[in-house]
Amino acid sequence: MPKRIREGTRVFGEAWIAPAAVITLMVLSPNAWGGVGLPWFDPFESDAAVAPAPGVRWESRDPLPVVPEPAVPESLKNGAPLTLPELTEFALRNNPATRQAWLVARAAAAGVGIEEAARLPEVSGLFGLTRSEQVSASGTSVPWQTRYGPSVSLSYLLFDFGARAGRVEAAEYDLLAANLSHNRVLQDVVFQVEQAYYLLLGFDALEEANALSLQNNQTALEAAQKRRESGLATVADIYRVETQVAQAQLNLTRSRGGLEKAKGQLASAVGLPVTAVLNVQMQLSPPSVRTITASMTELLERAKASRPDLVAAETQFRAARSSADAAAYSSLPSIEVTAETGTAYFTDQRPSVNSYNVSVNLRVPLFSGFRDTYTVRQAQAQAQQAEAARDLLTRQTELEVWQAYYDVQTAASGMTSTEAQVRSAEQTAQAALARYQAGYGSVLDLITAQQDAANARVQRIQSFLDWFIALARLNHSLGMRGGLIEAGGAP
Which of 133, 160, 158, 161 lies closest to 147, judged by CA? Predict the structure, then answer.
């Protein structure tokens, strides 16, 4: 038992020992009721459970709950490097988001059963023991009577103008929305794994490119040092090349840090701790670009029909509308039948008595303090809010499809230029290095050529990464389970 509750129990026990003193204090003293400008009477010391002032950090007097490590139902297989489909399949089974969405759907399914139960009668049993003494109308005292016995009662709603049906329909729409949301969560997890996977491949390729740039800059430094020894280069040339070596080393360090972050992101996406070591197939091959033949209008229509969250928003609106109808019907009369039977036994010598009762009731709500009025108004506003949320999601979906479509087009057109840029820049850098080693050309020309080659390699890696991620985003925005276009060239 928490300390606060134990202390409250102690104070309450003391008050029970001297009830007269406590009641007198509460009645006569304005402090007991927290009068204006007076201290608040706090018998259970509830104020001690919060921070003493707004700017003071709250400290718990009891040990705080310990957050357990999330359980992983299974582990990844050891052996061959894991491919994207294998990682995705594992993530769908082990990511906590999929389990959470599935349990929400199961809870919604139980909600349908709860509302469906209203279609059946309610039957309850009771076993009672009564001891009573009564006074007759003439004032004569009737001796004490002790009776006991079982009884069974039945209550069944016959007609309520559709309020019960409206609640059932709302629950069914809620279940449909939960199932669709679960499907969308599965698509979200797939997209997260794809993003993390391609990001990991991108940083791995970037690390290799930066390592190659560092190697080329070190080769240039050796060449500059030899020319310096021969008197063909100045100390300024050495400093310039050393600056480029340091910059290449910094780029390599940053890419390695990004690679480690990408590994943690991928591990988290598949449902494992960020410290988990994944044996991933590290290869970023040039993608096989395929033209999207579908028009933008067709893509938008496809998204409206395939996006589970968009269809779920429509079902949530219908659920809210059914709830509003049920709230409106609840203020109308209802017809119900009740039945009860029981047997009473007496402790004296009198025989037992059987009782039977059947009644049909017309229940007419007359006045509830305007509660029904505001309940209907609230339900109608919630239905309109759900409709607005659906329309907002529709516009967001259109924008996501629009942006992802043109991201794919831009990435596809950029890959051709980056390939040509890398080919030209590397040849230029090799030629500049050869000229510089032969005693021709300046160190500035060599540095510029090497920088251009390094930038071109980075741009090529970025163009590959942009293509894969843009394509994954387009498929995700369309809500396609199999994907509009497969990302060719990926392992």
Answer: 133
